[in-house]
Automatic annotation (TrEMBL):
InterPro entries assigned: PG_synth_SpoVB (IPR024923), Poly_Biosynth_Transport (IPR050833), Polysacc_synth (IPR002797), Spore_V_B (IPR014249)
Record key words, sorted: Cell membrane, Membrane, Transmembrane, Transmembrane helix
Lineage: Bacteria, Bacillati, Bacillota, Bacilli, Bacillales
Primary subcellular site in the record, as a coarse category: membrane
Subcellular location: Cell membrane
Species of provenance: Fictibacillus barbaricus
Name of the protein in its database record: Stage V sporulation protein B
Length: 516
């Protein structure tokens, strides 16, 4: 089994995350062009239910499996690894059966009584078959990560997106003549087939690499697995707390939005289309930089845990500053590009220039989100997962309350939902930051953050100039590509000029260090 170092594993996950995000945008562009705003709205109303089902099925087990497999593999205890896999498969198998049946029963009730658009029943029903697939995938992903082999996880993400993109246009186009609700169900079926392809790849890798037989003595091992079950749940349940809060909050989001817009006097079809623009087009763009902060957070937990165990609090501060600095650097360029070029981006990607108004309002506030992942990782590493969960709960309640308070007012409408989402992000990030300061007496390196903000403003000014005077000289797509590239070049120059990006930083990246 090929292992990677911490840095190599992080870089591999970052690259896979980047490719997956790009392919994800291609997938959304295809859906937008085939189904339109209304079809995307129906699909996006079902997505939170899908994510909640995934969270409940996984139950935080991938992280628990990863930790326990790593410990067992370090001591060469192959029988324990086998027992971990058997117990994990049993847990996720039972959960997937219960949740699948629950989805089939709940879909008509959700569509008729919670969502204002009863056409959501078809994409909701289409979710159910994916649950058992994800159950097995989550176990295998945790197994490979525990063996410090990130390749199967990384490659499977890319395979899943490629298959989804290959099928989404075919399936949505095939079902569209019967109505947009069936086209939305077709898009959800493409998700199922993508997940199935991902599972088949990981299963083939497992068959090739494994050194044990899972089926032999399965039930005997399961009966003897009480201690393993306890170990798994002790890690999994606290870990899944924040994830579950986020998933439940996201599940209720389209329900609150749809009913709030109905109270504001907006028709069902218009409300569905508007939510499709917000949740299907705008928010995925704003989440783009988080593949970097997610990969950074995965690496940060063991690094901070080690420093905390050795009581090297200055090292915790140093690593946190590095993480927050990288988050700001990656988020800074994303904020500039999305804010300045909002109209051409939304027009060229989704044929929806009107959606740019949501993007411009939300982008400055989403800057806070890019700090949230590293801060939460630090809290988990410092055994403050409960505090992180409470902060997430407060943010979820604030979001739903703000959406209801603002979206029910006709002068706000769907923009009220957008504001409620960003208010929640700011609240959670500030709460995480306050908890970290209280825990480790953290001191901000003001100079780095001030210079980074200055770089953002300088780059923003340059981007505005390019947008106004250079972009009209070219065809829309060509002009956008040239101006975004020039904006990135300006940003890179300012980072080097202010010494925010140094040669030493690049040397940590394996495939770049030989060039610097």
């Amino acid at each position: 089994m090929t292992k990677q170092t911490l840095v190599q594993g992080t870089i591999l996950l970052i690259l896979a995350g980047l490719v997956t995000r790009i392919l994800g945008f291609v997938n959304r562009i295809v859906m937008a062009r085939v189904m339109g705003h209304e079809g995307v709205g129906l699909y996006m109303m079902a997505v939170p239910t899908f994510l909640l089902a995934v969270t409940l099925t996984r139950l935080g087990l991938p992280i628990a499996i990863s930790k326990l497999v790593a410990e067992a593999d370090a001591t060469g205890d192959r029988s324990k690894v086998r027992k971990i896999l058997i117990v994990s498969l049993a847990i996720t198998g039972i959960l997937s059966i219960v949740i699948t049946i629950g989805l089939f029963i709940a879909a008509p009730l959700l569509a008729q009584h919670f969502f204002t658009d009863d056409r959501t029943i078809w994409p909701l029903l289409a979710i159910a078959p994916v649950v058992p697939v994800i159950a097995v995938s989550s176990v295998l992903r945790g197994y490979f990560q525990g063996l410090q082999n990130m390749r199967p996880s990384a490659y499977s993400q890319v395979i899943e997106q490629v298959v989804r993109i290959a099928l989404v246009a075919l399936l949505t186009g095939l079902f569209l003549p019967y109505g947009v609700q069936f086209a939305a169900a077709g898009a959800m079926i493409s998700v199922i087939l993508g997940e199935l392809a991902s599972l088949l790849y990981m299963f083939s890798m497992f068959k090739v690499k494994k050194k044990m037989r899972i089926r032999k003595g399965f039930f005997k091992q399961l009966k003897q697995g009480q201690e393993t079950l306890k170990d798994l749940l002790n890690i999994a349940l606290p870990t899944t707390g924040s994830q579950l809060i986020g998933s439940v909050s996201y599940f209720f989001e389209p329900i609150v939005v749809a009913n709030s817009l109905a109270i504001a006097g907006i028709t069902t079809a218009v409300a569905t289309a508007q939510y499709g623009e917000l949740a299907g087009y705008v928010i995925p763009l704003l989440f783009l930089p988080t593949f970097i902060t997610y990969s950074l957070s995965v690496s940060l937990v063991p690094a901070i845990s080690e420093a905390n165990a050795q009581k090297k609090y200055h090292l915790i501060e140093h690593r946190l500053n590095q993480a927050l600095k990288l988050s700001m650097l990656s988020g800074g360029i994303a904020a500039v590009v999305l804010y300045v070029f909002a109209v051409p981006i939304m027009d060229l990607m989704y044929d929806s220039p009107a959606s740019a108004s949501y993007l411009k309002i939300m982008t400055p506030f989403f800057f806070f989100l890019y700090f949230q992942g590293p801060l939460q990782a630090v809290l988990q590493a410092l055994d403050l997962a409960r505090s992180a969960m409470i902060n997430s709960l407060i943010g979820a309640l604030v979001k739903l309350a703000a959406i209801f308070a603002l979206a029910t007012r006709p002068e706000f409408g769907i923009m009220g939902a957008a504001l409620g989402i960003v208010i929640s992000i700011v609240v959670v990030t500030l709460l995480h930051f306050a908890t970290v300061i209280k825990a480790i007496s953290y001191t901000i390196v003001v100079k780095d953050f001030a210079l980074c903000l200055l770089s953002v403003f300088i780059t923003g000014a340059g981007a505005v100039y390019l947008y106004r005077y250079m972009m009209p000289q070219f065809q829309p797509l060509q002009g956008l590509a040239i101006c975004v590239a020039a904006t990135c070049a300006i940003y890179l120059f300012t980072l080097i000029f202010f010494k925010l990006l140094k040669k030493e930083d690049l040397k940590h990246i394996p495939f770049i260090k030989k060039w610097v």
